[in-house]
Structure formats: structure tokens, C-alpha cells
């Protein structure tokens, strides 16, 4: 997956500029974004804070690790059952 130019914290900071009263045209000019990108980010990150994004990222990593552990244990279990069935 392609890594973007902006971190999630930077994206949230850019989105918060709109709450301070700046127009979208002013906001996107400085970092060199398109308005479409701004609105896509707004739909994805609306109402989130940096702390929430950090926690979400941590939970996604933990979920990935747990899914991998489950897959490994399931594969081991299936192999053991296959060996016992052959005997």
C-alpha cells in the first residue's frame, strides 16, 4: 500500500483549519492538495482527534496480530487432527 505524504496527525490538523473559519480554497492551497482530497479526508477523519487515531492504529495492529495467532493455531490444530485420523 502506498504511503501518503501526510501523517494522520497532519491530516487532522489540516481538517481542523476549516473549523477555525478558513475556506477550503485557502486550506488546500498551502499544502498543495486538491479539494477532492480534502473532502475525502473529511469524510474519513471527520470528528476524530490525534489520540483517537493513535488508539485506533494500535487496536488495528493488535487485531492483525491476534488474527495471525488464530490462523497459526487453527493450522496446527488441523494438522494434528489429520495425523490422528491417519493413525
Concise summary:
The protein has 4 helices and no strands. 76% of the residues lie in helices and 0% in strands. This is Transposase.
Can you tag this structure with a few keywords?
Transposase_8_domain; single chain; 4 helices; 0% strand; 87 residues; mainly alpha
Q: Helical percent range?
A: over 70%
How many strands, which pairing sense, and closed or not: the largest β-sheet? Answer: none
Number of helices: 4
Low-confidence stretches: none
How many strand elements? 0
Question: Structural class from helices and strands?
Answer: mainly alpha
Q: What's the Cα radius of gyration?
A: 22 Å
Please report the distance between the alpha carbons of the first and last residues: 45 Å
Shape: rod-shaped
Work out the strand percent.
under 5%
The arrangement of helices and strands along the chain is HHHH
Structure notes:
The protein has 87 residues and is mostly helical. The chain has helices spanning 8-19, 24-29, 35-45, 50-86. Keywords: Coiled coil. This is Transposase. Residues 49-76 form a coiled coil.
Question: Could you give the topology of this structure?
Answer:
Blueprint: H1 8-19, H2 24-29, H3 35-45, H4 50-86
InterPro entries: Homeodomain-like_sf, Transposase_8, Transposase_8_domain
Organism: Hymenobacter glacieicola
Coiled coil: 49-76
